[in-house]
Amino acid sequence: MSSSMISQIEAGKTNPSFGILVQLANRLTTPVEYFLNDLDEPYVNATKLRLAEFYLVLHEPERALAYLEPLRPDNPFDPAAVRAHETQVGVNAWHVLLLVARAYRMKRRSDQAERLIEIVREHLLVEQNRYFEMLMLRESGQIEYDINNLEGAIHEWEKAVECGESLLTTREQAPFDVHRVLVDVLLSIGRAYRKKGEVERAQPYLERALEMAAPIATLRGAASSLLHHAQALLEEGEAAEAKLCLERGIGLMEAAQGIATAAYVARLANPSGDASEWDLAAEALISAKPDTFLESQVIALEENLDAADVETCLKLAAPLPALLQACCADETIPAERLHWLEVRLAIAEVGLDLKMGHAEEALARAEDLLAQLQATSDRPLRIRLLRRILEWHLVQGNQAEAQEAAVLLAQAAMGPQRAGIV
Fold first, then answer.
1. CA 389 to chain centre
2. How far apart, in whole angstroms, are the C-alpha atoms of residue 305 and residue 318?
3. Is there a contact between 332 and 60 (Cβ–Cβ < 8 Å)?
4. Strands (E) located in 43-155
């Protein structure tokens, strides 16, 4: 930092970014909280940014956007305007745009999400922030995956893995955060290859994901990872960052203890129950985000459909309607999210019915779903359904029907600004 920049901060003419404030606090051996009374507004915005992240984790993009939209720079194409905006609101503009893109993707607004990702990508080529670059590449890959551009998705995710593995050789980011993203990305690559029918190519990525997940596979392990990183930061004189990292680890440990205690109490109160303490603990974790668990089960069903494993599909499909009903009873899950899960499950069930030869009923249901999806302009789900229909007609040798489905699939995949994906 220049002395003039410090003078502007002291004179109240500008506000430091969070990173600069942390460094100032470390050099002055002062807690970051000491400065908060004089910098209320930027930290209100920083808190709003974290609230938006929280709602995205809960799959509530609409609530996240309510916090994110006021924090967006008006002209993200002008670097000078972006820097001025960052100074005004006190949060990283590119982080905001990345979260907005994620929210748009969750709302199936793929074209808008893609445009924002490209803006962030261009900036990160200059800034060289590897953690944000990894997050950007993960999001870009997911957009490509949603529109069935599997090669494009794998390409972006491979680059995200390179960023993550490079980060693990430094102290730029807590290993817990990097491992968590890398597990998700490696799993996604494995799923993409399985969706392509290349099961053998998927296996090494799934094995790497399992290896990468080992340090964070339990709440205690995740907390320990954060603890070790906090200790390393403290030894390097980064006391404020160490404190924040340690608080995250403590929160995880307290959550683990709460879950374990609740399971133990349930066992004492109902000693004749069928569920073990481990079952109760697992149920507690799943119930934190039952919709996400349902989505993971639907994904497993879809992957086994691609592998033509009908027996496994039937086992996976049996409990899903009841699980969906349980999610519907949870008033904290947004109606839009529930509807999306319901339609995605219905598409998987159409695929399973086709695999089992129940073609007449399945195609009639598919026609109703297509009309519904056309009305909502949900391209990713429409692509998913049309792919199932096309596969069925190709296997059955129905050339005219296959041609019609292929044309519809190509139109859906191209979208307003795309061509040549199919």
1. 28
2. 14
3. no
4. none
